TrEMBL record:
The keyword Cytoplasm applies. Keywords: Cytoplasm, Schiff base, Transferase. It comes from the Bacteria. One of its GO terms (molecular function) is transferase activity. The keyword Glycoprotein does not apply. It holds the Pfam family TAL_FSA. It comes from Clostridium estertheticum subsp. estertheticum. This is Fructose-6-phosphate aldolase.
Length: 226
């Protein structure tokens, strides 16, 4: 499982990379515009925090293949490192994915609501496909089952592309995606923290500390007690 953070907030990215085993950062035009700053400054800031090896997924905003390709080449040259250009699975996007594959620029097919969209994008050459789990659930679909179908299709046809499940509103959706073999998930900072939180974990840790300190002294650790 690859854990990816879905934000353009530098503080949140720094915290996630400090504490958790992060494989990358995803952004989209909405996420970037929330920061309300020059987008290149934001993206270069992210790259500086995560380093050149970590994945950074950045979306092209054009609606024609020609322009998407131009954006992808531009983003690749100015941001650099392990970059994936997110391209929506409209027909012009699939055309752009094919061209970018030939040019050696990595893509993540995005705005995916059906397994067939994912399969076509992967066959066209996308490295990742991003089904929108919660947005599917919101229209009375089953986001986890779409992820499961994509995983099955990729296995069946021996396709190298990976699922990057996105658009989560709760930890249970992330858990269910993991159970059906989703290769990676991108989650916002709140869900990332919630994935680890449990009141009984905190209670247990406090009890361990209290019991230890009642015998060995307040603030003493295993190193301090001789
Ligand atoms: C991935 O980067 C997607 O754009 C993102 O997860 C969508 O999430 P939302 O449905 O919460 O906006």
């Amino acid at each position: 499982m690859l854990y990816i953070i879905d934000t353009a907030n530098l503080e949140a990215i720094e915290k996630a990379y400090n504490f958790y085993p992060m494989a990358g950062v995803t952004t989209n035009p909405t996420i970037i515009s929330k920061e309300n700053k020059n987008f290149l400054v934001i993206l270069k800031g992210i790259r500086k925090i995560i380093g050149a090896e970590s994945m950074l997924h950045v979306q092209a905003v054009s609606l024609t293949a020609e322009k998407m390709v131009q954006e992808a080449e531009y983003l690749n040259s100015v941001i650099g490192g392990n970059l994936y250009v997110k391209i929506p699975v409209i027909p012009e996007g699939i055309k752009a994915i094919k061209i970018l594959k030939q040019k050696g620029i990595k893509t993540t097919a995005t705005a995916i609501f059906t397994a067939q969209q994912a399969l076509i994008a992967a066959v066209a050459g996308a490295s990742f496909v991003a089904p929108y789990v919660n947005r599917i659930d919101n229209i009375s679909g089953d986001g986890v089952s779409v992820v499961a179908q994509i995983v099955q299709l990729f296995d069946q046809y021996d396709i190298d592309a990976k699922v990057l499940a996105a658009s989560f509103k709760n930890v249970q959706q992330v858990h269910n995606v993991a159970l059906v073999g989703g290769h990676s998930v991108t989650v916002n900072p709140e869900i990332l923290d919630a994935m680890l939180a449990h009141p009984l974990t905190d209670w247990s840790v406090n009890q361990f500390v209290n019991d230890w300190e009642s015998v060995y002294g307040i603030g003493k650790t295993t190193i301090d007690v001789k």
